[in-house]
Structure formats: C-alpha cells, structure tokens
C-alpha cells in the first residue's frame, strides 16, 4: 500500500497484473472498502471501455480504479475525473510544444484531437451505493488512431505511481469543489475545453440511432445539447464521431 504524498482518505493498492482494475475495485467495494480506495495495476488481462469494448492494456500504460462511497451522481463524477486527468496531463506534457488537450463528451480525453485517455464509471444503483471510477491512460503505448504521453514528451520519466499521486491531488480538490459549490463550477471548467463545442457533430446512441446538429452545451445533468434546423435535442449517452 502506498499512502505517502496523497490527500487524506485515499489508500493506494498496487498490483503487478490484474484481470481488470474495475473488477477488483467492485469486489473490494462489495466487501465494504472505504471511500478513496485506489487500485492500480501495471497490466490488465481484460480491461474494458465504453460499450464493453476491449481496452488495449499493455504493460506500462496507466490502469486505475477508485472506489467512491459518497453519493455523487454519474455526470459530476465523470466530469470531475476528466478535468483531473487533463490537469495532470498539463503538468507532465511538453509545454514547449503546447499540446491541445480537450474533453470529448462524455468520457474521453484528447491530445491534439487524438485519444489519450478514457474513463468508465460503474454505479451499484443509479441513486445509492458505491461508484467505481475506472481510468485508462496511454503512457508509452497507443493504437495508431490514438496517442500517448511519450509521443508529446520523449523525456517523460515519472512512474505510474507518481502520476497517480499527482492525479489524486487534482481529483480530491475537484471533489471538494463539487461538494461545496455543486456541479455548475465543474460544468464550466469542462466546457472551456470541450471538443467540437459550437461546431457540427454527429452522435450515435446506444440503440444505433444517429443525431446531427451543433454542439450547443451540456446541461446540469451532463446531457449533451445539440441544435439543428428543426429541433433542440438532449442526449444522455452516446458517442461523437
């Protein structure tokens, strides 16, 4: 367990290899794990992303899951996590090159329009029980359509544990911001770096329907709002493409 230089209330458990950090975190949550229990693994055998897709999980990239027992709704938790990742990436990427970091609704982080990170949140029930915040970040390896930290900072030398400790400081501060001020501040921070905001987009939803329009904003529940010539649409979950 690694608990030095992290905010109070967080407990880090480091593994060499796991089937999935989210699965391990769910097991621990069901056994009564404390809020702030953090699982990090050097490698995953069967990591998953959105829609159950396999998450490419080679050794060296960042795989982490956090148990949250506070009753925080899905949207605030999703956006808090994305902003904390972006703030941490800003600390470690090569600022001379000034990479463009943006949030792709609902749960991806892009660098120069290529995916570097994704998050996946499991909730026991919609309104009660624990949540698991799963995070994957390309540190040294990425598919051809994505990017990694080493692509933007060839001199990057931090361990994943060191990166995690930087991330937790931002994550904790943003959680406290939300608990004190509500979702509005988090929403404003996210919108400042929203990918394709005010531009035409297409969204494919769970049921394979495709909607087109101008990405107008996100509402107080985290739904994306798009406008076209005939209507204003509110969409709770889907994928921009």
UniProtKB/TrEMBL annotation:
Signal peptide: none
SUPFAM superfamilies: Class II aaRS and biotin synthetases
Gene Ontology cellular-component terms listed: cytoplasm
Substrates-to-products reaction catalysed: biotin + L-lysyl-[protein] + ATP = N(6)-biotinyl-L-lysyl-[protein] + AMP + diphosphate + H(+)
Pfam families found in the cross-reference section: BPL_C, BPL_LplA_LipB
Keyword terms of this UniProt record: Biotin, Ligase
A GO term for molecular function: biotin--[biotin carboxyl-carrier protein] ligase activity
Domain BPL/LPL catalytic as annotated: residue spans: 11-187
EC annotation from Swiss-Prot or TrEMBL: 6.3.4.15
Top EC class, one word: ligase
InterPro entries, per database record: aa-tRNA-synth_II/BPL/LPL, Biotin_CoA_COase_ligase, BPL_C, BPL_LPL_catalytic
PANTHER family: BIOTIN PROTEIN LIGASE (PTHR12835), BIOTIN--PROTEIN LIGASE (PTHR12835:SF5)
Protein name listed in UniProt: biotin--[biotin carboxyl-carrier protein] ligase
Organism: Candidatus Neoehrlichia procyonis str. RAC413
């Amino acid at each position: 367990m690694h608990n030095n230089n992290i905010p109070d209330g967080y407990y880090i458990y480091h593994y060499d290899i796991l089937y999935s950090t989210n699965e391990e975190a769910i097991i621990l949550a069901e056994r009564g794990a404390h809020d702030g229990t953090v699982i990090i693994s050097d490698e995953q055998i069967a990591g998953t992303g959105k829609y159950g897709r396999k998450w490419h999980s080679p050794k060296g990239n960042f795989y982490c899951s956090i148990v949250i027992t506070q009753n925080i709704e899905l949207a605030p938790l999703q956006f808090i996590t994305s902003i904390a990742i972006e703030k941490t990436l800003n600390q470690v990427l090569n600022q001379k090159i000034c990479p463009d970091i943006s949030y792709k609704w609902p749960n991806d982080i892009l660098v120069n329009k290529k995916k570097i990170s994704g998050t996946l949140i499991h909730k026991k029930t919609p309104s009660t029980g624990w949540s698991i915040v799963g995070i994957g970040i390309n540190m040294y390896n990425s598919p051809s359509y994505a990017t990694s930290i080493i692509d933007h900072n060839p001199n990057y030398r931090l361990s994943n544990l060191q990166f995690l400790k930087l991330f937790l400081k931002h994550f904790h501060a943003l959680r406290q911001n939300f608990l004190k001020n509500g979702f509005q501040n988090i929403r404003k921070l996210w919108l400042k770096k929203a990918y394709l905001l005010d531009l035409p987009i297409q969204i494919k939803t769970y049921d394979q329907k495709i909607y087109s329009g101008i990405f107008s904003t996100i509402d107080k529940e985290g739904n994306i709002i798009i406008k076209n010539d005939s209507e204003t649409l509110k969409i709770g979950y889907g994928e921009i493409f």
